[in-house]
Design goal:
Blueprint lengths: L3 E7 L6 E7 L2 E5 L1 E4 L11 H6 L5 E4 H6 L3 H6 L3 H4 L6 E4 L2 H6 L4 E3 L4 E4 L6 E4 L1 H11 L3 E3 L11 H21 L7 E6 L5 H12 L5 E4 L8 H11 L9 E3 L5 H9 L4 E4 L1 H7 L2 E4 L2 E4 L19 H5 L2 H9 L3 H28 L2 H4 L8
Length: about 375
Amino acid sequence: MGFSFQCQASCSKSHARAGVFHTPHGIVETPRFMPVGTLATIKGITPKQLASASAQMILANTYHLHLQPGEDIIRDAGGLHSFMAWDNPILTDSGGFQVFSLSELRKISEEGVTFRSPRDGRIIEITPEKSIQIQNALGADVIMAFDECPPSDASKEEVAAATARTYRWLTRCVEAHQRPSEQALFGIVQGGIHLNLRSQAVADLIALDLPGYAIGGVSVGEAPELINAIVRHTAPLLPANKPRYLMGVGTYKEMVQAIASGIDLFDCVIPTRFGRHGTALVQGERINLKNAQYKRDYEPLDTTCPCYCCQNFSRAYLNHLVRSREMLGYILLSLHNITELIRFTQQIRQAIFNDTFTRDFGSWLVDA
């Protein structure tokens, strides 16, 4: 089975849409939050727990898996799905963001990026061809083009040069891709805060007729209102018959506003990162379980949540675990947070079918 996207319902008062993305390892019902499993694991969460959270597609990272354990080991294990015992869709990031975030370690040229491994100090070169070669070996359903992600404080000239190079690298990624029937290659729209650059990037990318498109460079330090302006401008320009993915975004408000612009897929490390710091996401709010007010709170985190944490444990117990630095506390909070953000996008999906999206989630759109 190949790849296809169908829009099943749309909002009459915004660009929000509900659809289904077909992949070789199953469907992804959109809009959808995707948990991040950088090193082929969602930190502290088993695949069975992920399934219980209604996760459909998850992420892994090309850069980190190349460094450890190496793509050859994963390929010889049968690919990522077999290696991590996850039978549903997987997306791999190209590694571009990680390479460019290590600014003191890397050198960019037209050929690619050379950097010093933070693990053992060896010199590593990743080119567009190498990124695709690694991702072909990893075997994810969706793979990302290698792109140059300029920092938020870059000049317009620097952003324009990076955006043009991203396109040239994309054409090399397309040429290098050896498994197009099994792996969908998504292009990434760059352009920083400059809407004319974003428009040109979209025009260049859609001319290549790729299976899907992502908006990148919007979680690298910009203010939320700038992120929203970029997405609101860019998303409707992307093809309606292809999935649209907003990279690295996963707060309630950012997702609602992006969905209103027509975005389908999201990823973010927030659920597990918050969980490891004792923070729970509950119906749009953040709760710090370290606080003393929860010591004798015998209610669950959320009485409406179906997750294992909420169905079995009290806030008092979670407070005890977190204050005692017990691993179970971080696991339970991470599981709840993942469930919460997936439920949130599922609720938005249902509201789109009911054509009540702007009414039900209007409080998140007030300054959109």
